[in-house]
Amino acid sequence: MSDDLQKLSTWTCIKIMGPMEHNLTGILADFSAPLKAAQVPIFAVSTWNTDYVLVPATMLDVAVTALKADGWSFV
Q: Which residues does UniProt assign to the signal peptide (predicted)?
């Protein structure tokens, strides 16, 4: 991403690693719970094999800290 575009970006995307099996349920609910507790607003997009969660770029550190404390890992 170019520096100019990154300066204008107000949201950052976190991809939940997929593909996931179609019978899995509650992934997005489990993922968003620690973000809610940390008062991080989200915009979620689901596809047929994974989910994407957008968080405000200014709150990315708060989001990552909350998710790691809940046991989520990042690649």
A: none
Query: 0.85 exceeded by the pTM?
Result: no
Tokens describing residue 3: 């520096």
List domains and CATH numbers for the chain.
Answer: 3-69 (3.30.2130.10)
Here the tokens at position 55 are: 């968080």
- Scan for tokens 């200014």, then name that residue: 58
Each residue's pLDDT tens digit in the chain (75 positions)? Answer: 567 766 667 999 999 887 667 666 788 899 999 999 999 999 999 888 888 999 999 999 999 999 999 999 998
What's the CA gap between 21 and 24, in Å, rounded?
6
